[in-house]
Amino acid sequence: MTTRCSLLSVTTLATGLVASLFVPLRGQSIPPELGAADAPAGSIWVDSLDLSKAQQGFGKTQAGLTVDNNKLKLNGVAYPHGIGTHAVGRLIIDLHGAATKFQSVVGVDDDRKGLGTVQFFVIVDGKVAAKTDILHGGDKPQLLTIDLTGAHRLLLYTGDGDDGYVNDHADWAGALITLASGSTEKPETVAIVPRLKILPPDPQTAIHGARIIGSTPGRDFLFSISATGTAPLSFAAENLPDGLTLDPKTGIITGSLKQAGSTEVKLTVSGPGGEAHRVLTIVGGDRKLALTPQMGWNSWNVWGNTVTEKKVKDAADEMIAAGLQSHGYQYINIDQGWQGKRDAQGNITSNADFPDMKGLSDYIHGKGLRAGLYSSPGPQTCGPYEGSYQHEDQDAQTYAGWCFDYLKYDWCSYGNVPHANDSVATMQKPYQVMRASLDKTNRDIFFSLCQYGMGDTWKWVSDPSVGVLGNSWRTHGDIMDDWHEPGAKEGVVLCNGGLWDIINNEIGHAAYAGPGHWNDPDMLQVGIVGFGDTHPSRLTPDEQITHISMWCMLAAPLLIGCDMTRLDEFTTAILSNDEALDIDQDPLGHEADLIYRDNHDREVWARPLADGTWAVALLNGGMDDTKITADWSDIGIKGRQNVRDVWLHKDVGNYDGEYSTIVPSHGTVLLKIGTPKS
């Protein structure tokens, strides 16, 4: 138990010393210089530096003010200088070896009136020099005094106390840097630039997306060839199976397969940028959907219950206009919010915001995209809207009649069904029932199980005694647009989770996934999101790069969750990195395994690819940039290997035994190692 005193202090005697104890300064006051209007001679206020280069979870870092533009005040004491930030926050200062001391009084600003939890870290040249207790709103502030003699890099890091970022108004009050005598260089802040090279549109014709697609003979087939290059493009296909036709102007393949079997189709796309060729394998047979993870868009993470037909049509329009369909995205999925009541015969209807479900699916199909919707095995969805309980056959036939291609089936109220319990059989039952109902229709409908990982879903959903129930299944609660969620622990299923929590929840799941059935760590939280209360993702740019990198490594569904009408250059770039998407869509379908992790939250993940190379992710879960090494012996390869950086789009050289590089805080370096087979 921590004894809370009037003022707590920690002083490091040498740069890089980790301070883990706090010495109470009973009866002592705050150093007067920290509350002064003017900086002492030979010192500078941190708030005199360029604070626009800081990162934080909400708002922007303020000079002399809180994130809500109030005067800085801790425990009733006002400070004319300091910085007001919000967890999770980072400010990097290049000291140029010209400083001797850093001082600040830290705590949750009084404007939160007892709310908020924050932990402050001072990191010097990559080592934790000091950290506070977790401070709550109303707690006594703590005084930090850090020796900076000879130091070059100072990171002020504001953590969220592991309970989310709400109300975390964090003050570095009186933040002061003392300069070395006679120094000519002054400290300056450093911009946190995401490790990403954004490429201009490539005029050369290229084909992207899945290399293998499956369908049931006799049922509707729809596939759009994804291609980029200077328009106009024309499309051709050699050896199309019987029953399928290609529109040479749009690249959309339609029809229905006449028979089962596997066919290799040679695709050719031509344009002013030349010709591109690729082999597409078309597989006909029972349960041949989802031979690669699904890619598309879902309405929930941006619109929540405010979704409308217009918003869905806008998403379909922008999927084409923004060029994302050209990189492999195929689905436009309506989540919760479309349902109306049941008619006198018990048939599900749509509500006033969705006046014509068949017309909507036709609109989506007309763009070469597939249409999806949402329900629950319970009497109600989580909304609550009408669920499918005891109407499974009717609903499946309705969805097929509306020509939908995808069903997300969310557990929601099924836990309240009489006689339901926590047994595996109970968890399997509603999905077995709907699986059977979907099989009775005359349409291929992708079946996405949303059951939050309860009972280790990845195990029971693919139990040989019942057959594979779904094409993908959720392995965790809902993803939020932050790094870490309250109470998150590895292996514990929560109602929601942060990016770091969900990534590490995936450890050990690779054996249960593969072509036709995929682990689903939930939808993407990049771009403008917010469940109806929209805002830019609170994930930092490097965290968003990690998000895409790790979902590709995990062979996870890539379902965009943002406002498609407000795509910016960065969001479009990370969603359309074909080198990363090729890893996700690799036909071998082997999900990545964690092959290395240390106690500094440095991780290495690896997965084999169909071309004989390896995809490797170097993931930094720590607070500061750090070096991470991929060791060939951990991966299972030998000799000299070519290393390609997927986000920088370049070969970085040939290496023997290992490859090391600096990885940004909460960032990922995504690599492809080896030489592809011809």
Contiguous helical run count: 11
In percent, how helical is the residue content? 10-25%
Overall pLDDT metric? 92
Terminal CA distance: 63 Å
Strand content: 25-35%
Protein structure class: alpha+beta
- What's the shape? globular
Radius of gyration from the CA trace?
Answer: 27 Å
Q: In CATH terms, what is the fold-level topology of the largest domain? A: TIM Barrel
Enumerate the spans where pLDDT stays under 50 for 5 or more consecutive residues.
Answer: 1-28, 488-494
**Superfamily at the CATH H level of the largest domain?**
Aldolase class I
Number of strands: 47
CATH class of the largest domain: Alpha Beta
CATH arch. level architecture of the largest domain: Alpha-Beta Barrel
Instruction: Tally the structural domains.
Output: 4
Largest beta-sheet details? 8 strands, mixed
Please describe the topology of this protein:
Blueprint: E1 8-12, E2 23-24, E3 43-45, E4 62-63, E5 72-74, E6 77-79, E7 82-86, E8 89-94, E9 99-108, E10 117-124, E11 127-131, E12 135-136, E13 142-147, E14 153-159, E15 169-179, E16 188-190, E17 206-208, E18 212-215, E19 221-224, E20 226-228, E21 234-238, E22 244-246, E23 252-255, E24 261-271, E25 274-284, E26 295-298, H1 300-303, H2 309-321, E27 331-333, E28 339-342, E29 348-350, H3 357-366, E30 370-375, H4 392-401, E31 406-410, H5 424-439, E32 446-450, H6 457-460, E33 472-474, E34 478-479, E35 496-497, H7 499-505, E36 518-520, E37 528-529, E38 535-536, H8 541-553, E39 558-560, H9 569-575, H10 578-584, E40 593-597, E41 602-608, E42 614-620, E43 626-631, H11 632-635, E44 640-645, E45 650-656, E46 658-663, E47 668-673
Parallel strand pairs: 1-13, 18-25, 26-27, 26-39, 27-30, 30-31, 31-32, 32-33, 33-36, 34-35
Antiparallel strand pairs: 1-2, 3-15, 4-7, 5-6, 7-15, 8-14, 8-16, 9-13, 9-15, 10-11, 10-12, 10-14, 17-20, 19-23, 21-24, 22-23, 24-25, 28-29, 37-38, 40-41, 41-42, 42-47, 43-46, 44-45, 44-47
Helix pairs in contact: 4-5, 8-10
